[in-house]
Amino acid sequence: MGKSTGQKRKESEEKRKYQQMTKKMRPNPPILLNSLKAFLVGGAISLLGQGIQNIYINYFDFSKEQAGNPTVATLIFISALLTGLGVYDNLGQFAGAGSAVPVTGFANSIASAAIEHKSEGLVLGVGANMFKLAGSVIVFGVVAAFIVAFIKTLIKLL
Predict the structure, then answer these.
(1) d(C-alpha 13, C-alpha 19), whole Å
(2) What is residue 35's predicted lDDT score, i.e. its pLDDT?
(3) Which is nearest to 48 in space by CA: 81, 72, 64?
(4) Distance, CA of 61 to CA of 88 (rounded, Å)
(5) DSSP letter at 3?
(6) The pLDDT value given to residue 2
(7) What is the pLDDT of residue 114?
(8) Which residues lie closer than 8 Å to 75 by C-beta, 6 or more apart?
(9) C-alpha distances in angstroms, 22 versus 15, 16, 18, 19, 156?
(10) The predicted structure's pLDDT at residue 146
(11) d(CA 85, CA 82)
């Protein structure tokens, strides 16, 4: 037998009261502080990247255009190394999006997936789970690049 209309109304009212109570008891997140932490850590990562790029330009005789790829590769290496040592996770806990948005955050996610699933084997554990995460990002990047290039081509033709 189904519930009567009165029972349904009573359950709905209890659910509403419970939601109000949990909303009132939930602490407010420190949005301004979190934003400041994300800004500072994201800025520090960018500053580190700029410093690495300057090293490639000044000491290895790269042009500004040539220094971009090894700079990104170096940041990815540092991020993966710090993930393996357990340092990047602490940084992520502190900074939130400030450590997740740069390329170092993507490298951290890939390395974390590899570390977490290494017990399942190299191919089905590490490889499969790394690309489970990376695949969607790569597909999105390729599709977004195609759309931007297509729009740019259309604009040039007009």
Answers:
(1) 10
(2) 93
(3) 72
(4) 31
(5) P
(6) 60
(7) 79
(8) 45, 48, 49, 52, 102, 103, 104, 107
(9) 11, 10, 6, 5, 55
(10) 95
(11) 5
- Residues of the chain with pLDDT below 50 are none
- DSSP secondary structure string, 4-52? PHHHHHHHHHHHHHHHHHHHHHSPPP-HHHHHHHHHHHHHHHHHHHHHH
Among candidate residues 50, 37, 130, 146, the one with its CA nearest the CA of residue 83: 130
3-state helix, strand, coil in the chain (%, to 5): 85, 0, 15
Q: Which residue has the tokens 């040539």?
A: 66
Q: How far apart are CA 91 and CA 47, in angstroms?
A: 16
Residues 45-53: contacts with CB under 8 Å, at least 24 apart: 45/75, 45/98, 45/99, 45/102, 45/104, 46/102, 48/75, 48/78, 49/75, 49/102
